[in-house]
Structure formats: structure tokens, C-alpha cells
Design goal:
This protein is mainly beta and about 170 residues long. The chain contains no helices and 15 strands.
């Protein structure tokens, strides 16, 4: 589940059966496939999201959010929390727990099931928990987060009702 991230009609990221991330692009009647992470490290174990041909976010095998950016033809790895290692916030392992909106990353927390956000500013990401989410069981996420029209996130709440958060 959630192993394909279509950027547009001619560009798509996908997770292979080897849990590596691949980038397929179409030009001049030919599909070209590149390996994003060629080694055995930084493998993908869950959600894969992208809105750019040069950047892809995903849940790593360690449970943290990772991303690759393409710079001068090479794919560079990073954790979203730190340039060297993740700090403490893991993403839930259920499918559809990661959403991108512009440069910001929204995700379902691994143990608290709250809606978390990383806001991109000045080359780094700042973490926060969305206000109001998770104060009661009815506001926690049970599953299937989706980006709605304009700037809203829909999800299945712990009360089995569809809920949303307007950004």
C-alpha cells in the first residue's frame, strides 16, 4: 500500500520488491528507471510521497521519515528531523499515514496517533503537533489520511467517523 507517488503523468517514484526507491520518467516515447537509493541502507518500509521530480519522502525501515533530494544528478539522503540522525518522532506503520502539502509534511504519529506536522523553513524542518488533534480519543487518527480539496486533511477517527482538519 502507498508504494507509488505520481508526481505527474511523466514522472513517478515507486518502492520496488527490494524496498529500494525507484524513479521512472517518460520522455521521447521511452520510460527510464533510475535507482534512488542503490545501497542496502535507507530502505523504504511504508508510505512514499512526492510532489517534485527532485524530492521524495518515505517511511524508512527504522520507522522515521526520510527523504532523498536530487542535486547535480545524484540522490542525497536525509532524515527529516536532523542532518545526522532522527530524534524521537516516528511515523505510524499503517498505510496512508503521510501527506505532503507544498513543502510541509503531515503524518500520523506512531504511538500517539495524533496529526503531526513538519514545516519547512530556511532549509530545515520544524516539528509540531496540530492544535486540537489528539486531546480526546475522538480526535485521534485511526487510519487512512487523505488530502482533501484545497488545504484540508481527512482521516478516519477513533470513533469510526470521517473527520477533517482545515489547515
Amino acid at each position: 500500500p502507498n508504494s507509488i507517488a505520481a508526481v505527474n503523468e511523466n514522472a513517478v517514484f515507486f518502492r520496488g520488491t527490494d524496498n529500494k526507491i525507484y524513479f521512472a520518467s517518460y520522455a521521447a516515447t521511452i520510460w527510464t528507471i533510475d535507482v534512488v537509493n542503490s545501497g542496502a541502507t535507507y530502505l523504504c518500509a511504508g508510505d512514499l510521497e512526492s510532489n517534485s521530480v527532485s524530492k521524495v519522502f518515505y517511511r524508512g525501515t527504522d520507522g522515521y521519515i526520510h527523504y532523498f533530494t536530487k542535486v547535480l544528478g545524484a540522490w542525497n539522503h536525509n532524515w527529516i528531523e536532523s542532518a545526522t540522525a532522527p530524534l524521537s518522532t516516528k511515523i505510524n506503520s499503517e498505510a496512508n499515514s503521510l501527506i505532503l502539502l507544498s513543502n510541509d509534511v503531515y503524518f500520523r504519529g506512531n504511538t500517539d496517533n495524533k496529526l503531526h506536522r513538519y514545516v519547512f523553513s530556511g532549509g530545515s524542518y520544524t516539528h509540531s503537533i496540530i492544535n486540537g488533534i489528539g486531546k480526546t480519543n475522538n480526535k485521534k487518527i485511526k487510519g487512512n489520511m487523505r488530502l482533501g480539496p484545497s488545504t484540508s486533511i481527512y482521516y478516519l477517527g477513533m470513533d469510526d467517523k470521517i473527520q477533517y482538519y482545515q489547515l
